[in-house]
Amino acid sequence: MFPILFSIGPVHLFSFSVFLIAAWLVFSFVFWKLLRAEAAEEERIFDLTFYATLAALAGGRLGFVLFHRDLFVNDWLAAAALWVVPGLSLYGALIAGLATCIVLSRSYRVRLGQVLDSIALAFPAALIVGKIGSLLDGSEVGIAASLPWAVSFVGHVGLRHPVQLYEIVFLILVLVAVWLLGKRGERNKWPYGLVGIWFVLLFSVGEFALEFLKESPVYWGLRANQWVLVALFAEGLGAFYVRGGGREKIRPMVANLKRSIYAKFSKRRPDGTAKAS
């Protein structure tokens, strides 16, 4: 692990901080480029990025404080002091930033669907960079493992799953899948936002599985982040049902399923008498 990239006297340059800033730059550039290609006004794009960034920082910190209350029992003022007790919640930042984009997109007259489709490519690209910083910093610790590619984390005994590496590989696959879905959507004239919905579904399922390999508190049988991912998946599924033509696709499937099930039950007994209700 390399939590400190280099030091100049008493000044330390932390790897996670550097890659976090780099991740934000990647997100901002890709987000701007994709929305600009859809003829969105640059001023509106910058406003969305600015306010979503502020909301993501606040949401990320709030999420971290809520799930690590033991760190702030003796000094709740430290919750606002990121430099005293460092820590951010990825999913708190994602939810807060996404909610801000949803609310402001209408005010700024930017298509919400275009915003979601842009996030679908910008977010995993930025998160790949952020996960590299997390791997160098050792801020996310995997469960114990006896694997040839397992790594040793500072302050933790034994070998651990390098979950950040797993996530990087997964996010690259998601990025490729979203890009291919975007190309297909352009050819088939999909409604705006459908690619973004597919990203939420793919991301939620994959990250849910990877959370089992992380050391984190368990609540009611699942890890805290997994409950957030379940909620994200449910929202994505609901959005797909409404926005992605799910009603037209799912209702016939359910109707056919009902017919196939009920067709197995005879309405009359073999002896010809009516079946009792």
Structural overview:
The radius of gyration is 23 Å and the shape is globular. By secondary structure, it is mostly helical. It has helices at residues 15-37, 42-67, 90-107, 112-137, 163-188, 194-210, 224-243, 246-262; strands at 4-8, 11-14, 151-152, 159-160, 218-219, 222-223. The chain has a two-stranded antiparallel ribbon. The chain is built from eight helices and six strands. The model is unreliable at 261-269 (pLDDT under 50). A hairpin with a 6-residue loop joins strand 3 (151-152) and strand 4.
Poorly predicted residue ranges: 261-269
Largest sheet: 2 strands, antiparallel
Euclidean distance between termini CA atoms: 69 Å
Order of helices and strands: EEHHHHEEHHEEHH
Give the overall silhouette. Answer: globular
- Mean pLDDT, to the nearest integer, reads 82
Number of strands: 6
Rg value: 23 Å
Please specify the SSE layout and strand pairing.
Elements: E1 4-8, E2 11-14, H1 15-37, H2 42-67, H3 90-107, H4 112-137, E3 151-152, E4 159-160, H5 163-188, H6 194-210, E5 218-219, E6 222-223, H7 224-243, H8 246-262
Antiparallel strand pairs: 1-2, 3-4, 5-6
Helix pairs in contact: 1-2, 1-4, 2-3, 4-5, 4-6, 5-6, 6-7
